Each structure stands twice: as C-alpha cells, then as structure tokens.
Amino acid sequence: MAPNDSTATDGGTKGAAARRKAARYAVPVAVAGVAAATIGLVPALASTGDPDLPKITAQQLIEKIAASDTQQLSGTVRISTDLGLPSFGGLADAFVKGGGPGGGEGGSSADPQTKLTELASGTHTLRIATDGPDRQRLSVLDDAAEYSLIRDGAEVWAYDSGSNQAYHATDDRAGAKRNGSSAPVPDSVPTTPKALAEQFLKAAGPTTSVTVDGTARVAGRDAYKLVVKPKQAGSTVASVTVAVDAKNGVPLKFTLLPSGGGKAVVDAGFTKVDFAKPAASSFTFTPPKGAQVTEADDAKAQQHKSGGPEGLGIFPGVGEPGAGGKGADGAKDTKVIGEGWNAIAEITVPGGAGLPSKASGEVPAEAQQFLDALGDKVTGKFGSGTVFKTRLVNALMTDSGKVYVGAVTPESLVKAADNAS
Prior knowledge:
This protein has two domains: 255 residues, Lipoprotein localisation LolA/LolB/LppX (outer membrane lipoprotein receptor (LolB), chain A); 110 residues, TATA-Binding Protein. It is an alpha+beta fold.
C-alpha cells in the first residue's frame, strides 16, 4: 500500500471419492472484498492510564505502518478465532487422511497446507522469529506437542512433534513470502498482527472510515490504536482495531469485532516481543532420529494421483474471491458484486451442480450433519438454496450451482442472487 493511498480413511475407493466430493463442496467461507479506506484525520488523544504520546493523525499512522522497515524480531503471539464454527482441528486431521493436500497414502501431518488450518478456530499460542525476508520460524504450541515451520533461504522445513513427521520443501513451495510478512505459511492463514492488519489496509476505498482512538500498552510497548469501521450498512464487521507500535510502526495487536455483537471474531496480539536480531539457531532444523520425512514434490505427485484439490487455503474447493477466472478445484467464472465491505463473490460451481446430499450418496453422514447444522434453506427469484452462516462470513449456495459469499448478512446474499438471476 502506498503511504498516501486512501484507505477467511477408510482406505476404500468409494470412501476416498466421497471425501473428495465432500471437500469440493465444503462450505465456501472466505473473506470477500473486505477493504479499509477513507482516512479520517482525527488526532489521537491519550486516554487515562494509557501512554501519553504525541498527537498523530490516521493518515500519519498508516504512513508509519507502510514505512516500517523492521525485519528482525522474535516474540510470542496469542491468537483467538471464533467464527462460530466447530473446531477445524478434527477436519484438518480427516482431510490429511482423506486425500487432501498431503493426505491419503504418503501424506504428512506436518504439511503446512493442512496443519495451519487449525488456526481458523480456537485459541493458540505462537512463537515467532524473523530475520529479514528469507529467515523465519513459526511454532504453534500445544499442551503436549509443538508444530514448527522454519525457513532458511530456499530451505523450508515443517515438523510435527506429536506425530514425529517432517515436511521439506525448497523455494516457496510451502507458501513462503506470503501474507505481506514473508512468513512461510499458506495463503489465507495470517499469523501475525502485521499480516492481519495489512489484509485490511491494502485495498482502501471510500467505503471505510479510519481514525486514531487513543493509545495502549501492548507487550510492554507504547502503541496508538487505529480503528477501522465500515461506512456501509449490511456488513458483518463492526470494527477493526490495530494497535501500532509508536516507535517503529509495527502492528502489535489486531482485533475484529462483529456487527452482531459478542466477543471478537479474531483477536491476535503479541504478549512478548523483542526487536533484537534472533539467534541464528532459530532458523536451523535437522529431522529427529526416526522422523518420517515427506518431500514437497512427492506430496504433490501423490496429490495428483489421488485427485485431491490443489492450493488449499483455510477452506478447500474455493478460489480466491475477486480474482476472476478459475479458482481452486475447478471453480470458474468468479466475479465480484458490489464494492468495499459489501462486496460479494459470485462463484459458478463446475457443471452447475448444487449442494450434494446424503441421499445422492455423494456426502458422508458426518459431513452431511455438519452442513445441516450450519445451513438454512432460503428461496427467492433465483430459486432455492442454502445459506451457511458464521459470525463473520456467510455463503449462499443455490441449487442451480452458484455460490455467493462475503462478509455480509444472509439477506444481502439473497438480494445479490435475486439481482443476478
């Protein structure tokens, strides 16, 4: 973003095929068209008990974020995500066993494309370190195990201590240099406040107000609070607050509140941070004795053999909204309806197929139960379909094979489908 821009095994052949179909029709929940924009020149005023910092405008603060050249840091990040969905940990494990990326015969639980989907729900503690654009380490800490993702130049390693499995790739095949933070993680899985903030600030437009609302202390650092709010009605987002380090412009905390009320949908922030150069040993890795090592090229070959979808982000079977052309797993003719916070991605499912059902034999009973728990039947000029709801992103899949998805209300999706029919 320019400084002055305005500103989501059963081992049998039939079982594997059913799982692949279920993955293809998985609920398409991806944040579509969320933008941050018009700069409100409101000065920051220190609140009682918070740091007394010099006044700054939103324009100046966004320029400070854009100009930040901090490339060395280490610390601990706590991230909580509540989309109103069941935990994705079990779904990720099932996908590994069932033929998704890294899944099926020869798959690896250490594959970042599946392991990091767990960050889409629940509360997690991450330990991170970075030393320039080509050296990063990300560790997800659990009670009894640790998952680490390490990049050192062209070498990328991932290791799951719980299963003693490792995954090795070269260049950017594990998703390196993405999310605006050079972190070796899959698309759509931002793992730092900086990556989250940049997703909301990179596509600014006139549909958003951005102001500075006081100061705060985060991880022992003085920070300004940048508040982003939609001007449009109908968005599921109430506000986004980014705590920005007053000294170096690094986002330290990111909080997204839903318009429906309740606790934050996403709350990610440093609990500890150090801007000194991390130890070189942080970026070295040797597989432990007895570890099962999977090479990225071998996993990709197995993926083609099993017919699993490529390019998995958090949610399989759906391309990037707004990109146009073909999406993942063959989705085509993707276009965007509306703009700003109310933008809706319209995706045409290959073959014009609607949502599969248990009666058709295409969906396992467990997957059908999951879909039924989320979906509400709706009708309109477009015909009939099912709306899948979360606290942030909603999706309408019509029986004629079109998907409408965005960070908007279900009513907005139905209206978009009616207008497009």
